[in-house]
Specification:
The chain has 5 helices and 4 strands, in the order H-H-H-H-H-E-E-E-E. The chain has helices at about 1-5, 10-20, 20-25, 30-35, 45-50, and strands at about 55-65, 65-95, 100-125, 125-135.
């Protein structure tokens, strides 16, 4: 269980258990939405945290109408960038009484992690006012 917590693999059940009193006070229909990883406009930050966990990034924006807080959720996935030389594999070969070393280049694939935003929740005064999903 320690590994899951360290790696950020918290489950919906973990989040519900952490907020058990709050969750149990919610209407059954709202509980079902949160368990399914769904939120609706008007939900609170606490409800969104139960449904999705802590956001990867939080952005605060202030304007004449007040402050909004955007929670951004991202998926990380590897993107292939090609190969790179990691060194040489050396073989000793003997032919006709002569020993030689043959060097073969050793290559490895190179991947970089790319974070793609898939969900943005915007809150005003702790209430969800905008839901934006990437396709």
């Amino acid at each position: 269980m320690l590994v899951a917590t360290v790696l950020g693999c918290e489950t919906i059940d973990d989040r519900i258990a952490r907020n058990a009193e709050y969750f149990s006070a919610l209407p059954v229909s709202v509980q079902a939405h949160l368990r399914a990883g769904e939120v609706e406009l008007g939900y609170t930050e606490a409800m969104a945290e139960i449904a999705f966990g802590r956001p990867d990034t939080v952005r605060r924006r202030a304007n004449a109408q007040g402050e909004t807080v955007a929670w951004l959720y991202r998926n990380n996935h590897p993107v292939y960038e090609g190969t790179y030389l990691v060194g040489y594999r050396v073989y000793e070969v003997e032919s006709g009484g002569v020993r030689r070393l043959i060097h073969f280049p050793e290559f490895r694939p190179f991947y970089r992690n790319e974070a793609k935003e898939y969900l943005r929740l915007t809150f005003s005064r702790g209430t969800l006012v905008e839901i934006e999903r990437s396709e």
